[in-house]
Design brief:
single chain; 7-stranded mixed β-sheet; 5 helices; about 35% helix; disordered N terminus
């Protein structure tokens, strides 16, 4: 019975840890606040492409996520109202990039959740690896000059509120 109890505790502990981030909270980053955002081009689910350099002059939130990641899913549930709708009409771009998943998987997820905002694809994690090694959700807030002003790993309601406040602050900085 002790073996079963140990397995249950290990599984539950893993689930609880997964609520905040998929993998370690202290996973190393390749870029962080103060760094220039890496250059990349991402193909969106609709087939269009976005080049990071073409977004200069806008505030951009680059968000790495996956459909299988519970904290990513929790974070995305708040995005439409608290980020996309709130900053509509501003020089702001929300750029979610699915890490390591096929187009079909992301399209199905979008339809099931009625997400209307664009989503990028990074099936081989080429873009993600320019930013970090592991752990999602992972956000990088980029100012109008292409400098990362905030980076964060994981999701909690409190950290999400702080991110929204930082977007507001960055938009108001000219």
């Amino acid at each position: 019975m002790n073996v079963l109890k140990s397995i249950a505790v290990a599984l539950f502990g893993g689930f609880v840890a997964g609520v905040f981030a998929c993998r370690a909270q202290d996973a190393p980053e390749r870029v962080s606040a103060g760094d220039q955002v890496p250059s990349f081009t991402v193909t969106m689910v609709d087939g269009s492409t976005i080049h990071m350099g073409g977004l200069r002059g806008k505030v951009v939130l680059v968000n790495f996520w996956a459909t299988w990641c519970p904290p990513c899913r929790a974070e995305l549930k708040r995005v439409q109202k608290d980020i996309v709708d709130r900053f509509a009409g501003e020089d702001f771009v929300f750029l979610p990039i699915s890490r390591g998943e096929k187009k079909e998987t992301v399209e199905k997820f979008r339809q099931e959740n009625n997400y209307a905002f664009p989503m990028g694809l990074d099936p081989d994690q080429t873009i993600f690896k320019r930013f970090a090694e592991t752990s999602i959700p992972r956000n990088y807030l980029v100012n109008r000059e292409g400098v990362i002003v905030k980076s964060e790993i994981g999701y909690t309601p409190e950290s999400f509120e702080e991110l929204v406040a930082e977007i507001e602050k960055t938009l108001n900085t000219k």
